[in-house]
């Protein structure tokens, strides 16, 4: 309810002969907020003019929003206050927004130069980044996040007797903007697939290839970037930098403080296991043996190293009329059986996938190259001038360095798409004979988005595995699991689970562990001593 004080009726039949100063301002601001939220002004009998007019315009808008528009007792107070800041951010002018952001970041104790900094980590491993999360959601929905949220909250409050916990709130907020699914036209898909095949193509080349005007390509790319997080990102080809990817599967826990640990991924399917990818120095088998021994003394684990990385993006199951993914799992099961047991893989040939990491011959590089890779990986289509400015080089110098990295396949490009109806993430760990591994992988690449890692066991190097990460429509897990488990032979084994990213390092390359003088990665007992393990 609105705070008490001098109460003024704002209904149309108000009969007061004189209006207190500020009443008209408040009425206009209520209308202003209501128009933005696309909702009627809630019916309230009284409006405390003196109370609201004691605030500046920003605080006034925020308090009116909280008191008159936001259903109470649904979200934690911190989130409600953040939503009020988001409303004011949308309604204020540019200069006022700058001051608001400073205040908002300061209130939450966050650094505006570190947008991924976590405000709160929930018990289930999810995170709430306050300012960043809400601004990101607002941007991805073109300012429609709050109006959409309010509509859903009006329905939700019928079933809520007490505020949601923060982890529940975080999932609910995520679903709001993830549910803002854009439509993808034939032109959109053609542009996406062309860039997927030729990540460094210029807009002019794309326009010629898909028979469109260059300005139309720019518009499509801007739209896809905002709606679908579309972009060309880069993974470092670790072998070129004297590193190797090691993946540890265990039910224990390894803290993120270890400098060569990249992320913590939780896989849930009945039981819960975790995947820990590391990027450690490569020196024959000496370092991996030392690393394995350090972990094995504390944990039950399986360890693998990456041999080859592939990915694939397919729209064959996307129905442009309904704007939905329509995977016929019965047909896909038959397709899988064909691949596994009728040598279908050999019939189709090697062009069905893009091999992203294979040649692992190290190149000569220095700290400046690592800085470029670390920055450039976030957008492989960014101007060279941006890279030069970031690392303290001229545009020509940056272009020369980037060309060297590209020519030597140090940067591995891949296209990302989100919010296109592929909301379920499944992880598959498949072990079997090599011919079946290849065939199973080929069948997977019939699905919309697949990242595939060919792995070799350690210390048992004869063990071959396939680790695949799939993005599929919601509700696909059971159908996919039924399909693959029904086709297995006794010589094969498979582990399936939902993937949740619990923690992630900001860097894929442990730059701080590179010695610029010796041009070698730091390693030894002092480094291994930083491994913190929880059973």
Topology diagram in text:
Elements: E1 7-9, H1 23-37, E2 46-48, H2 49-52, H3 57-69, H4 77-91, H5 94-108, E3 120-121, E4 127-128, H6 131-140, H7 145-156, H8 166-178, H9 186-197, H10 203-210, H11 214-228, E5 231-236, E6 243-250, E7 253-254, E8 263-269, E9 271-281, H12 286-296, E10 301-313, E11 318-319, E12 324-325, H13 329-341, H14 344-348, E13 354-357, H15 367-376, H16 384-391, H17 395-407, E14 411-416, E15 424-431, H18 434-444, E16 449-458, E17 464-472, H19 477-485, E18 493-504, E19 514-515, E20 520-521, H20 525-528, E21 533-534
Antiparallel strand pairs: 1-2, 3-4, 5-14, 6-9, 6-10, 7-21, 8-9, 8-18, 10-13, 10-16, 11-12, 15-17, 15-18, 16-17, 19-20
Helix pairs in contact: 1-3, 3-4, 4-5, 9-10, 10-11, 13-18, 13-19, 15-16, 16-17
Compact overview of the structure:
The chain has 535 residues and is α+β, with helices and mostly antiparallel strands.
Which stretches are low in confidence, meaning pLDDT under 50 for 5 or more residues running? Answer: 1-11, 13-17, 343-353
Mean pLDDT: 82
Major beta sheet, strand line-up: 6-9-8-18-15-17-16-10
- Count the DSSP helices: 20
Shape category: globular
Mind explaining what this structure looks like?
It is a single chain. This protein has 535 residues and is an alpha+beta fold. The protein contains 20 helices and 21 strands. It has an 8-stranded antiparallel beta barrel with strand order 6-9-8-18-15-17-16-10. The chain has a two-stranded antiparallel sheet with strand order 1-2. Strands 3-4 form a two-stranded antiparallel ribbon. Strand 11 and strand 12 (324-325) form a beta hairpin. Residues 1-11, 13-17 and 343-353 have low confidence and may be disordered.
């Amino acid at each position: 309810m609105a705070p008490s004080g001098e109460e003024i009726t704002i209904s149309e039949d108000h009969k007061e002969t004189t209006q207190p100063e500020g009443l008209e301002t408040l009425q206009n601001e209520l209308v202003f907020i209501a128009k933005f939220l696309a909702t009627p002004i809630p019916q309230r009998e009284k409006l405390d003019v003196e109370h609201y007019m004691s605030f500046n315009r920003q605080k006034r808008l925020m308090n009116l929003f909280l008191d008159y528009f936001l259903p109470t007792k649904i979200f934690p107070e911190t989130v409600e206050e953040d939503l009020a800041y988001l409303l004011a951010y949308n309604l204020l002018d540019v200069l006022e927004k700058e001051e608001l952001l400073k205040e908002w970041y300061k209130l939450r104790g966050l650094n505006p130069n570190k947008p991924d900094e976590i405000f709160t980590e929930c018990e289930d491993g999810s995170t709430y980044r306050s300012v960043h999360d809400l601004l990101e959601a607002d941007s991805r929905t073109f300012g429609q996040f709050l109006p959409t949220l309010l509509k859903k909250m009006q329905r939700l409050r019928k079933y809520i007797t007490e505020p949601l916990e923060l982890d529940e709130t975080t999932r609910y907020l995520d679903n709001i903007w993830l549910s803002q699914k854009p439509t993808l036209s034939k032109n959109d898909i053609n542009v996406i697939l062309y860039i997927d095949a030729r990540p460094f193509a210029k807009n002019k080349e794309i326009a010629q290839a898909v028979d469109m005007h260059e300005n139309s390509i720019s518009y499509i790319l801007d739209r896809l970037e905002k709606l679908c997080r579309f972009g060309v990102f880069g993974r470092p080809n670790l072998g070129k930098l004297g590193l190797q990817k090691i993946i540890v599967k265990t039910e224990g826990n390894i803290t993120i403080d270890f400098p060569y640990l990249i992320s913590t991924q939780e896989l849930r399917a009945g039981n819960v296991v975790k995947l820990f990818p590391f990027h450690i120095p490569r020196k024959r088998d000496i370092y991996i043996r030392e690393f394995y021994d350090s972990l094995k003394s504390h944990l039950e684990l399986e360890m693998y190293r990456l041999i080859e990385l592939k990915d694939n993006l397919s729209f064959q199951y996307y129905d442009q009329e309904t704007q939905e993914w329509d995977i016929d799992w019965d047909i896909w099961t038959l397709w899988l059986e064909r691949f596994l047991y009728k040598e279908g893989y050999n019939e189709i040939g090697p062009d069905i996938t893009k091999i992203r990491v294979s040649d692992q011959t190290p190149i000569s590089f220095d700290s400046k190259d690592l800085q470029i890779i670390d920055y450039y990986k976030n957008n492989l289509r960014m101007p060279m001038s941006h890279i030069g400015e970031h690392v303290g080089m001229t545009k020509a110098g940056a272009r020369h360095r980037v060309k060297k990295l590209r020519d030597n396949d140090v940067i591995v490009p891949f296209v990302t798409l989100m919010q296109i109806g592929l909301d379920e993430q499944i992880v598959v760990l498949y072990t079997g004979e090599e011919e079946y591994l290849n065939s199973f992988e080929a069948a997977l690449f019939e699905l919309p988005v697949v990242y595939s890692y060919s792995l070799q066991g350690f210390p048992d190097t004869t063990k071959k595995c396939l680790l695949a990460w799939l993005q599929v429509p919601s509700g696909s897990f059971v159908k996919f699991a039924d399909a693959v488990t029904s086709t297995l032979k006794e010589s094969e084994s498979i582990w399936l689970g939902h993937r949740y990213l619990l923690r992630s390092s900001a860097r894929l390359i442990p730059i701080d562990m590179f010695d610029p003088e010796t041009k070698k990665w730091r390693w030894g007992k002092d480094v291994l001593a930083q491994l913190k393990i929880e059973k």
